[in-house]
Design goal:
This protein is α+β, with helices and mostly antiparallel strands and about 100 residues long. The chain has four helices and three strands, in the order H-E-H-H-E-E-H. The chain has a single domain (about 5-100), classed as Arc Repressor Mutant, subunit A (Orthogonal Bundle). It is about 55% helix and about 15% strand. The two termini are about 25 Å apart.
């Protein structure tokens, strides 16, 4: 079993499932989806987004140049596969935990 992704990575990917978002909106959506458990600091999502771009989990979906640069991030096919892989890993882990807990003492 390969290493699990961080919670923040998975929450960012989940935030981008329906549509591309700006960094600030990703932070708000991560907090909403995680029911407040994961809160991103102002700078942390951008460092994480940069790393996720390098890993090709997300992509720059659109840039708008008005008075300032606004970048929208979107999920890639690799990012979608990562969510599926994480779900599978969690299902296996859950199954193993249940099996161990239900073992006779």
């Amino acid at each position: 079993m390969s290493k699990r992704q961080t919670d923040l990575t998975i929450y960012i990917l989940l935030a981008l499932l329906k549509e591309p978002l700006k960094g600030y909106d990703i932070s708000k959506e991560v907090t909403r989806i995680s029911e407040g458990e994961v809160k991103t600091l102002n700078a942390s999502p951008y460092a994480k987004l940069k790393k996720m771009l390098e890993l090709e989990l997300i992509e720059v979906a659109e840039e708008q140049n008005e008075s300032r640069r606004i970048v929208y991030y979107g999920i890639t096919e690799k990012g979608r596969k990562t969510i599926d892989e994480e779900l599978n890993k969690l299902e296996i882990l859950t199954s193993r935990i249940k099996k161990k807990v239900e073992e006779p003492v």
